[in-house]
C-alpha cells in the first residue's frame, strides 16, 4: 500500500517537474499536481495508522500496563 502511494505521488510530481503552460487558460501543471495528489491521501493515511499501531505493539511489552510508563 505505501508503494502505491509513493508511485502515485511520483507520477503526480512529474506534472510539477515537466511544467507546461495552462491548458485552456485554466489548468496548469501546478493545478493538476494538486488534483492528482488528492486520491493518494486515504492510502497514505491508512499506511500511517497501520504503521503507528505496529510501532505501538513493539513498545507495549516495555510499558507498565497500569501507568503506561517505561519499565527500567
Produce a short descriptive summary.
It is a multi-pass membrane protein. This protein has 72 residues and is mainly alpha-helical.
Describe this structure in words.
- This protein has one domain.
- The protein is built from 3 helices and no strands.
- It has helices at residues 2-17, 29-37, 40-59.
- 1% of the residues are buried.
List key phrases describing it.
3 helices, 0% strand, 72 residues
Per DSSP, the total helix count is: 3
Order of helices and strands: HHH
Multimer state: single chain
Mean residue pLDDT: 81
Number of domains: 1
The share of residues in helices is 55-70%
* Principal-axis shape: rod-shaped
Q: Provide the low-confidence segments as ranges.
A: none
For the terminal residues, how far apart are their CA atoms?
A: 36 Å
Largest sheet geometry: none
The tally of strands reads 0
Q: Strand content of the residues, in percent?
A: under 5%
Structural class: mainly alpha
- Radius of gyration, rounded? 20 Å
Amino acid at each position: 500500500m505505501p508503494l502505491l502511494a509513493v508511485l502515485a505521488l511520483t507520477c503526480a510530481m512529474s506534472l510539477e517537474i515537466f511544467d507546461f503552460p495552462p491548458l485552456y487558460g485554466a489548468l496548469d501543471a501546478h493545478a493538476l499536481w494538486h488534483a492528482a495528489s488528492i486520491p493518494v491521501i486515504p492510502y497514505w493515511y491508512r499506511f500511517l495508522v497501520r504503521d503507528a499501531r505496529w510501532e505501538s505493539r513493539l513498545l507495549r511489552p516495555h510499558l507498565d500496563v497500569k501507568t503506561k510508563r517505561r519499565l527500567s
